[in-house]
Amino acid sequence: MVFESLSEKLQNALGKLRGKGKLSEKDVDMAMREVRLALLEADVNFKVVKDFVKKVKERAIGAEVMESLTPGQQVIKIVNDELTKLMGEKEAKINFSPSPPTVILMCGLQGAGKTTTSGKLAFNLKKQNKRPLLVACDIYRPAAIKQLEVVGEKVGVPVYTMGNKVNPVDIAKAALEHGKKHGNDVIIIDTAGRLHIDEELMDEIENIYSAVKPQEVLLVLDAMTGQDAVNVAESFNERLGITGVILTKLDGDARGGAALSLRAVTNKPIKFVGMGEKLDQLEPFHPDRMASRILGMGDVLSLIEKAQANIDAKKALELEKKIRTQQFTFDDFLDQLEQMKSLGPLDQLLGMIPGVNSKALKGLDVNEKDINRIQAIIQSMTKKERENPDIIDSSRRKRIARGSGTTVQDVNKLLKQFKETKKMMKKFTDMEKTLKKRGKFGFPFF
């Protein structure tokens, strides 16, 4: 889970202050010592940690806290504010050119996920009604061009390529002309990754930069490289003047040092974060929302945005009607599972709910294999069985188990759960009807 280790340690350190009616400077010192240690263990830059703790402490021993009725809560608010500032305060969006096309130059080390991220970014911009063009300028890595073509096909975005015998500078210039002729308003140039800061390849990307004059130079960094990601960012920034960073594999980084150090050290914003391998799992980076998640305050806005983007409103209304009229079937259940899966990994979703901290999630078995097993069982049922599970006798149960690669016990368990769910839904519906009736007779519950 994102920031799992840091989140748990910060919440523990600040939790000790939460219930105190009065805070002394000693209390604040002890908490700040734990905060400092947690940040350093998360691989946050030493200077960044030093400045952060100093700012928090100065505000925490000031009048706004000491004279407060809830001093512990005030300190948590200060930490939240300073974390948000540290990561850039607000979302940094793509700078689109007033006269299209907007040129985005992608750069980074080999293995950071640059080619896949280029495709993810194209997909993200396509959802914003842009017409992106992907450009294959990595002529060195075997199959790099083919990889971009495959990614482009998956996201439904055209890929411009001239093979691996043409100079990347000439490819970039030709792609720009091609994009203008074909109405592409965003040109995303995927360049060659390097194993280290290679002089020859750095000269090449500088030449591409001079030839196409991009509005954005986005550095793709692997979040799991931690402190080294900051050093790479500084090197690329010196040569190219990057405009922003895309952090990949943030979902697999339990420490989060790169995300917390980058803005402070390079003064360049994190614009997007990769939260999974799927092509729709590139998200805009919101410093305020991320700070809230780190401190266990949740991220309701991102959760709502995910739901709005992935859940069919018409289907949701139909489902509500079915629940009210007791017509909920296994088909509806399957549909709900598929929509829930489209929102992303369950542990990420739970981490967005206020009050659900990383410690609580550790003890929870968020097993997506269980969801896949349930889907397989339902898909092995006939249409009649899904609509009326009461007809599923022992022979049908055996057939369903064989068809789904599960056991009869698994099928029995699901049928029982479904029955209990329907009973619970009926109780809620009946309770709502009763309350509405009472409201009409002078009991104003609503």
- N-to-C order of helices and strands: HHHHHEHEHEHEHEHEHEEHHHHHHHHHH
Distance from N terminus to C terminus (CA atoms, Å) equals 40 Å
Helical content band:
55-70%
> What would you call the quaternary organization?
single chain
What strand order characterises the main sheet?
3-2-4-1-5-6-7-8
Q: Total number of β-strand segments? A: 8
Fourth CATH level, the homologous superfamily of the largest domain:
P-loop containing nucleotide triphosphate hydrolases
Per CATH, what is the topology of the largest domain? Rossmann fold
CATH class of the largest domain: Alpha Beta
Number of individual domains: 3
Percent of residues in beta strands:
5-15%
User: Which structural category do the helix and sheet elements fall into?
Assistant: alpha/beta
Shape: flat
CATH architecture of the largest domain: 3-Layer(aba) Sandwich
Structure description:
With 446 residues, the protein is α/β, with parallel strands linked by helices. It has three domains: 83 residues, SRP54, nucleotide-binding domain (Four Helix Bundle (Hemerythrin (Met), subunit A), Up-down Bundle), CATH 1.20.120.140; 197 residues, P-loop containing nucleotide triphosphate hydrolases (Rossmann fold, 3-Layer(aba) Sandwich); 134 residues, 434 Repressor (Amino-terminal Domain), CATH 1.10.260.30. Helices cover 59% and strands 9% of the residues. The chain contains 21 helices and eight strands. β5, α10 and β6 form a beta-alpha-beta unit. α1 runs antiparallel to α5 and α20 crosses α21. The radius of gyration is 26 Å and the shape is flat. The two termini are 40 Å apart. The C terminus is likely disordered.
